[in-house]
Write a structure and sequence with these properties.
Layout lengths: L1 H31 L1 H8 L2 H40 L2 H26 L5
Length: about 120
């Protein structure tokens, strides 16, 4: 009878371990929201609509973020020019001169497109 009791204990232990694993898997599936994802895959129009809106939101967020970042960079560059640092100031002045020259050339091209 001791062998049967030992076998029953092992079987009970295996069943308990399996029950714990099933519970863990169930919890993980609920965390992943697998049911909602599968439901969304059944409605491709809704999936397209949601992805479209998310794409617009990401693009808008990127544009706002880049605008803020560019504003900060311009502000810092203005402060550097005001400090009149010899090397950095002349470098920035050269960049500004190049940009103005290109804008003037572009302005002439776009103002008189037929004469070129």
């Amino acid at each position: 009878m001791t062998k049967e009791a030992g076998t029953d204990d092992k079987q009970n232990q295996v069943v308990e371990e399996l029950a714990e694993k099933v519970e863990e898997l169930s919890t993980n599936i609920q965390k992943m929201r697998l049911a909602e994802y599968l439901e969304m895959l059944e409605h491709p129009r809704r999936l397209f609509y949601i992805n479209f809106l998310l794409g617009i939101a990401r693009g808008f967020g990127s544009a706002i973020g880049f605008t803020i970042l560019a504003g900060i960079v311009v502000y810092i560059l203005q402060k550097i020019v005001v400090l009149n640092m010899p090397i950095i100031g002349s470098f920035i002045a050269n960049i500004v001169e190049i940009v103005q020259r290109e804008l003037n050339v572009g302005g002439v091209i776009f103002q008189n497109p037929g004469k070129i």
